[in-house]
Every structure is written in structure tokens, then in C-alpha cells.
Amino acid sequence: MKIFQVGGSVRDELLGFKPKDRDWVVVNSSPEEMENNGFKPIGKDFPVFLHPKTNEEYALARTEKKSGVGYKGFRFYFDSSVTLEEDLQRRDFTINSIAKDQNGKIIDPFKGRLDLEKKLFRHTSSAFDEDPLRVLRFARFKSYEQLSSFNLHEETNIYFKNIAASNELKELSPERVWMETKKALENKHSEEFFKAIKKYQLTTPWFEGLKNISCDGDVPELKWADIQRVNGFQLSKPLPIPKIFQKTQESLKQVLDLIACENKKEKFNLVEKMNIHRNYELFQSIYAHSSIKEHQNYLDKIFQSVMDIDFSALSTIHGSEVSHQKQLLYYEALKEIL
Predict the structure, then answer these.
(1) Could you report the per-residue pLDDT of 35-52, keeping only the tens digit for each?
(2) Which of 14, 85, 207, 321 has the largest count of CB atoms under 10 Å?
(3) Domain annotation for the chain: domains and CATH numbers
(4) Which of 160, 207, 158, 155 is nearest to 180 (CA)?
(5) CA 78/CA 32 separation, integer angstroms
(6) pLDDT digits (tens, 9 = 90+) for 278-329
């Protein structure tokens, strides 16, 4: 059994960045030997194990062959005869096809270090376009601080065009596309993810309608709300957007609608629908957003006035009269502001 550190963690270390996590490849071993050494099996399609102490992932060296469509349309081959170089060759980019042995020696059969110096994303092999997920992973890599200034190799761009033309992007699962998007939103240069999607014509089918790009915000939910804002809140409807992302997006739209509204009666209705009491903290984070920052004092007055309303008297009222009395409370609190 020989163990090698591989992939993004080696890449980041060579770039002078501390990796968030590490991946490992095991050569000349078997599932039985791994389990006998205390490793916990977790892989469904191929043997991946958790280290008994560190919980880091260790995978048996493997090769793969295209057998269907999408990123799951592969057959994997693994046994003790698969070499480290064969395993590295199946990876996406040369900068991710670098390994390090337990003595710290770098193994770089595809000249990934040279591409790190040149700041290039270059395909490791001609099998690159067999996996459509790789173009989205590239877009996500562009959101990393250490990779945001890297460019796509001109020959690799041909493979991108092949993937876009094949329509295999639609075979990706919505959950996996959202996973890549969410990871990009968690990184420093989130806007680079969407720039890459647009530049390399990868919008169909998951990002149709992507025309403008802005990811202002200090949390992923607000960045997502902002990219929705500049695209008319119509982006990526097929994706399984988590409720907190949907709520943040909806709340930003409500605030913008309130600011834009010129009809006083409609303003009162909008404020009531916003349910400020329940969502006060969320609105607090939103109205400091750059798109509405100049209206912050105005919004402060509205929100604080609503928060000061005493709704306890409504508990003694029944039926349809509750709604009417509630509207009167809003009117009295906001008549001088709206």
C-alpha cells in the first residue's frame, strides 16, 4: 500500500495557500485491506474510505471509461494494478493532477506546476469533454482567490465548446449544479463563477437569462439575491434553491419594490406583506445592501416604526375585523413616513 496526497490540496500548497481539506489516493491496495486497517467505506460508485482518525477521504487508485451521458455515465476500474499516473490522468486539469508522496516529493507527470506558473487551466487528457460537470467545476475554481486570475488554455476551450454543443449539461442533476453554485457563492470571487458561465456559453439550461453579473454581499444568500436582482429575479428557476436563499431573494425584492412604489396605499400593503416583525433580522442584513444603501435612513424609520407597534390588542378581536384593525395600526405608525 502506497498513499499519496492529490488534487486541490497539493495545488493550493504549491500556490502558498492553506488547503481547506485534503484528498488521498491509495495505490497497490484493495477494499479488504483498507477495511482491515480501520478505514470506513463510504463510496457508492467506487471505493472511497474515511481515515479512522482524521476523517479525511482516501480513494483507491482508479481509471474510468465513458458508458453513458452526464457526469455519472462512467464505469470505474480499480484494483492493485492501477498506477498513480493512471489515476492522475483521469482528472480534469493538470494543476489538479499533481500528487505528493509521504516524504514530500512532488509527482507531476502532466506538467501541472508549469501551468501553475503560467496561471493556466489546461486539460489533463483528451477525455476532458466526457464529463460535463468539469466546465462547472472550472467556473467554481475561478471563484477561488488563488485561481481567479487563471486563464483557460486555448486548446481546452475547444473541449468546453464540445460540452456546450453536446447538450450534456442538461443531464446533470439540479442538486449537483446547485452544489457547485453554492460553493462558488461561498468564495471570495463569486462573480467569476457567473462570468465564466456567461463567457463560455454554459448558460443552457441552468442559467438561462444570465445577462448581468453582480454578487455584492458578505454572505452566500445575499450574493445570490444580488445576482437575481440584476437579472430581474428570474434566474435559475430549475435549481433546488434552499429556503433561506429564496427568502433572502424575496426579501430583497420586497424592499426594492417598497422603495420604488409611489402609491401610498400600495406602500402600506407592501409593508404589511413583508411581515417585518417576523423577518426583522433578515431585513436588517438586506437594507445595508449597496443597491439600497442610500435609502437606509428611510427604511430604518419604517422598520423601527413597525417594530414599535403593539399588536397585543388584536388578541381580543375576532373574525374579519382583525385584518381591518391591523391595517389601522400600520396606518397610524407609518402615516407620517410613507
Answers:
(1) 999 999 997 767 899 999
(2) 207
(3) 1-131 (3.30.460.10), 135-241 (no CATH), 246-334 (no CATH)
(4) 207
(5) 13
(6) 999 999 888 878 889 899 999 999 999 999 999 888 888 877 788 888 889 9
